[in-house]
Amino acid sequence: MAMASVMLPLGTTAPAFLLRDVVSGQRYSLDSFAGKRALLVMFICQHCPYVVHVQRELSKIGRDYAETGLGLIAISSNDPEQYPDDAPPKLKEMAERLGFTFPFCFDDTQAVAKAYRAACTPDFYLFDRDRRLVYRGQLDASRPGSTTPVTGRDLRTAIDTTLAGKPVDSRQKASIGCSIKWKPGNEPAYA
Fold first, then answer.
1. CB–CB of 180/78 below 8 Å?
2. What's the rounded Cα separation, in Å, for the pair 75 and 113?
3. Which DSSP symbol is given to 45?
């Protein structure tokens, strides 16, 4: 079922996390990106048609911003029991197939998704140098089945603006995608 991002309030401090990358096994936290001028946290998965629709653009963003001050991390929080395509081995296959240049971590307890109030995949959170939220909106206006091309325009504009040290326009359109697949009994109040 498609749903919109919760739209965490702008200015929110990035919640802490400590997660393992499904490819390298390395652990990542906010401190892993301490030297970066901005941090993009993306909640994605493998099976969602909305993510499948934009997955190549996400990989391209990783490559395009690899030599900039942007830190990137992707997180999957879906229940792998109900959605085996979102289990870590399948996520690793996805990351390798798409050539992700950023860590792709698995949120087994779903605590990180709850801390960020993630609601859908994809869900994007862009933080400035002080790790204050400056953007939580859509990648662009393209959706599965639409004729609008996937460009990443909205997110790229926010990234470029943040890296330039300028304020991001607060008029932001919510990301839309598949709901986070919560473990039975683990659904947050906002879901």
1. yes
2. 8
3. -
Of 66, 72, 63, give the one whose Cα is nearest residue 104: 72
Pairing state of beta strands 70-76 and 38-43?
A: parallel
Q: List the one residue out of 127, 155, 125 whose CA is nearest residue 139.
A: 155
Closest CA to 175 of 13, 15, 10, 50: 50
Identify whether the C-beta of residue 43 lies closer than 8 Å to the C-beta of residue 113: yes
Kindly report the pTM of this predicted structure. 0.97
Task: Give the bridge partners for 18, in sequence order.
Answer: 29
d(CA 121, CA 134) in angstroms, rounded, equals 19
Query: Per-10-residue mean pLDDT for the chain, 191 residues long?
Result: 90 98 98 97 97 98 97 98 97 98 98 97 98 98 95 98 97 96 93 73
Residue 1's pLDDT is 65
CB 54 within 8 A of CB 150: yes
